[in-house]
Write a structure and sequence with these properties.
46% helix, 4 domains, 530 residues, single chain, elongated, 4-stranded parallel β-sheet, Rossmann fold
Length: 530
């Protein structure tokens, strides 16, 4: 059976094109060999389950591995200790390969727990049974639990962690699991944000024994190249593997689901769509841009989770809005709960000093989210673009100069008497609000992260296989304007373009609004002032 790109559940080597994760497995094994207890907390669809499934096989020769998935247990089984003990014993017995791996005495005890016939169906008794198993086992024992945060707002889950912690601390006197790995979205080292506020009991730092997990799980360009090479060996499309991997990485930031989803769209949708004659023409920059456009306009579980978190955490929504539209630099602080949330959910990344949106796909999806329901005043700009959108597209090409001309006209009519604060904080929002209905469905845009600040933003627009760069900036005098022109020329060189666009928001009373075209160093710059 032919392989395919997978975006559902875990990847299997014999069925799916996938990144080689053997280096990651070896790094994790070293932590297991050292007897460490640790957590793997990553955002949704980040490859946790695929890694854990592969790790189970990677460790089985040297260890007795108990690999559990708390999603397999119902919510009600976490509500009462007796029910949790029964379910946990049942899952443990089913997880161990071969009946001989469980000593007969231990098996009988576990069966009693699972059947609800144990003399005392409480966690401490079950862990005493597991401790005896660790003593009798020929191999050291490793416990892996996926989706540990499925019901982590229940007290019984905290008690489960407390038992693991207690045996870890006393492992020199009481036999215990050699290593424990807990995986989920929420970091179980800090469960306070998941604990029910009405719960009667609390426990501070129930998992403060966890070692740091520093294994990189996002895909690098090299990782993506390896996956594409395997595909290319099968189909011989003639793609430039190195270039395609670099482009995919630039859009996704290596987020595993996004990488696989783009590849799947190119392979299964773009190669069969009008304008692309099979896989050979689909695995190109044009094919990738079309796949990006499809991805940005689809509903999937990852985007549903992304937007759901924005609605559930207003403070997170406000921070992301400020980062995107107001150019506010968010400094990284490990003590900032909002930043901690954004990092945990995969919205953002940090370089240790500042925080930025994790990838172009997320950024554009979030921009679109904020632009979906414009306020009454903003809806006038959106309506103007919607009514005139047909004049901007000719023969499948976007006339960006005309877009700027019309934007200047409408912006001056509607908001020309606004002050400096308005331009700095809302200018980019109004331009994107105007741009979106014009390119919606056929093109997309993203913001160049390195230039996003209060004074300057570069927007990269993809339409019909073409890229256009529009620099937005606040007017700071002619010298600053000249520097902006030089910076725009540098970006044109980087993207191999001979035309660029500049939109300046000028709050001087004697400003001259309008548009002009100049030629610098052989490149054409179209400059607009509002």
């Amino acid at each position: 059976m032919a392989k395919c790109f997978n975006v559902n559940a875990d990847c299997k080597r014999h069925l799916h094109y996938m990144v080689d994760i053997s280096d990651r497995l070896e790094q994790i094994k070293k932590m297991v060999d050292a007897g460490e207890y640790f957590t793997i907390n990553r955002a949704r669809q980040y490859g946790k389950t695929t890694t854990l499934k592969a790790l189970e096989g990677y460790l089985k020769d040297g260890y007795t591995v108990i690999s559990l998935d708390f999603q397999m247990m119902s919510y009600t089984e976490f509500e009462k200790e007796e029910m949790f003990v029964e379910a946990l014993a049942r899952e443990i017995m089913e997880a161990v390969e071969g009946g001989n791996a469980i000593p007969q005495e231990i098996r009988e005890e576990l069966e009693a727990f699972a059947a609800g016939k144990a003399r005392r169906a409480i966690l401490s008794e079950l862990f005493r049974c597991l401790s005896r198993w660790c003593r009798q086992s020929e191999k050291k024992m490793v416990l892996i639990v996926d989706e540990v945060d499925s019901a982590s707002n229940n007290q019984v889950f905290l008690d489960f962690l407390a038992q693991l912690r207690g045996y870890y601390i006393s492992r020199d006197r009481k036999p215990a699991f050699h290593s424990v790995i807990l995986a989920g979205v929420y970091d179980v080292k800090n469960l306070k944000r998941k604990i029910d506020s009405e719960s009667g009991r609390r426990m501070n730092s129930p998992w403060n024994i966890a070692a740091d997990f520093l294994v990189e799980m996002s895909f690098s360009e090299k990782d993506i190249q390896g996956m594409l090479k395997e595909y290319e060996d099968d189909y011989e499309t003639g793609m430039d593997i190195s270039k395609m991997a670099r482009e995919i990485h630039e859009y996704t930031g290596g987020y595993p689901f996004l990488v696989s989803r783009l590849c799947k769209l190119i392979d299964e949708r773009i190669s069969c769509s009008p304008g692309f004659q099979g896989r050979n023409s689909a695995w190109t920059k044009e094919g990738l841009l079309e796949a990006v456009n499809l991805l940005l306009h689809e509903k999937n579980t990852l985007f549903d989770s992304l937007i759901g978190k924005m609605d559930s955490y207003p403070e997170l929504r406000e921070s992301i809005y400020s980062l995107l539209f107001q150019g506010q630099s968010i400094m990284y602080s490990p003590d900032n709960d909002v930043i901690d949330l954004a990092l945990m959910f995969g919205f953002v990344k940090t370089d240790g000093a500042s925080v930025y949106v994790a990838n172009r796909i997320f950024e554009t999806r979030l921009y679109n989210y904020f632009l979906t329901a414009p306020r009454e005043q903003e809806s006038r700009m959106y309506k103007a673009a919607t009514e005139e959108k047909n004049q901007f597209i000719k023969a499948g090409r976007l006339n960006m100069r005309l877009v700027l001309e019309k934007f200047v006209q409408h912006f001056d009519d509607l908001y020309g008497d606004q002050g400096q604060t308005f331009y700095e904080e809302d200018g980019r929002r109004y331009f994107l609000l105007y741009l979106r209905p014009i390119i919606n469905g056929k093109g997309n845009y993203y913001i160049e992260t390195q230039t996003r600040n209060r004074e300057r933003t570069d927007i990269i627009i993809d339409y019909g296989g073409e890229q256009m760069i529009v620099e937005l900036k606040v007017w700071r005098g002619n010298a600053y304007h000249v520097r902006g022109e030089k910076q725009l020329l540098d970006y044109l060189d980087y993207y191999h373009l001979d035309k660029g666009y500049m939109l300046s928001f000028n709050f001087n009373k004697n400003k001259e609004i309008g548009i002009r075209e100049i030629v610098l160093d052989g490149r054409t710059l179209v400059e607009a002032v509002v």
